[in-house]
């Protein structure tokens, strides 16, 4: 809420768009050259090159190097919590694998979830968990990872599964009163939380129904790769792990902590440590394999759990389908995502410092001559901020500050703005590879943003739904109700 918006009167809209155009061209060429490997490092450097272009524009407009670095430092500071959560998610994934939690979820999931209902079931499960926890990130880091494993075992394209996970996770994130963005949007627009939630359901529920229908159709029509032998998979899982419903105690505790409004970082740490203990109790043979010993000692148990938390581990299996599922990168796997976030924050920080973000938002605001134009400008501003600032909070805060007066001047209730901020700012952040949300979800689920993007139906449809409501004047609440004589 205290985010500063830097304004530079000397900056023209053409100058403000130079770094954006340069970044889009460079990223496009880089992805063309590297394909799926672009996130391994080259995209990160391209973001720094984009920041350099922005800095050059700033120097020509007499913005000091110190001012730019100060804003970069502020941007990076704002991501500290996200970075720590990312590291803890990596740790959690490692211990949940060696403890048998994820294999147990896959084991029971394979018996319950048939291919025909798997995608809509994934959407619904993630929606429920996300509403309960108020966090799309926690949902992906817990049930999301398990559902990716089940979907992979069933032979689904992982992009489809990740799209269902993300669609469900962001549906809950939007509507849960415990979600930070759900509280931030009405605060920026000037309305209260529950008015915002009630008004937001008008666009969110139809979008969700369409998303559910699409996943039902996709689940019934998709030709999954190969003929998966479920019995063989179950046998191989049992051969590698001790499977027990008691292992679900750990994820139940983590979800319970989040529901009780425990900080996500604390809940994930508790989940990691408990899973490490469960690994020693339920899977001593796995611990011995990782530590390279025949009999467990305190030292070898410590080493086995610590290796799973911090680095890459591979649980041996002869089943090729399970090979990737039995591999975890721990905290080390998240370093590439953290690298991407830091480079994105450099670009966003310099763009903010030179006044480019404010200039682009002002240009969009000038296009708002009609009610529809105002809604469209808000959507465009949110998308632009998600692309350039690489942060969903800025995509809510900056347009919220810029457009609040415009909505009031047109006689529109503030919940129109808060709903649009969520429909366009919150949910689209995950569709941008270098945005903190896109980088997080890709790193957590192990599926590239471009692979899940076509299937993140809820996230794609949400901004279009809000524009349709605006275009046809459907449920557009006025600030003052006219009284007829």
UniProtKB/TrEMBL annotation:
GO terms for cellular component: plasma membrane. It is a multi-pass membrane protein. Coiled coil: none annotated. It comes from the Bacteria. This is Transporter, NhaC family. Belongs to the NhaC Na(+)/H(+) (TC 2.A.35) antiporter family. InterPro entries: Na/H_antiport_NhaC, Na/H_Antiport_NhaC-like_C, NhaC_Na-H+_Antiporter. Residues 168-473 form the Na+/H+ antiporter NhaC-like C-terminal domain. NCBIfam families: antiport_nhaC. The chain crosses the membrane at residues 12-33, 45-61, 82-106, 112-133, 145-171, 197-220, 265-282, 338-358, 452-474. GO terms for molecular function: antiporter activity. Keywords: Antiport, Cell membrane, Membrane, Transmembrane, Transmembrane helix, Transport. It is found in: Cell membrane. The keyword Transport applies.
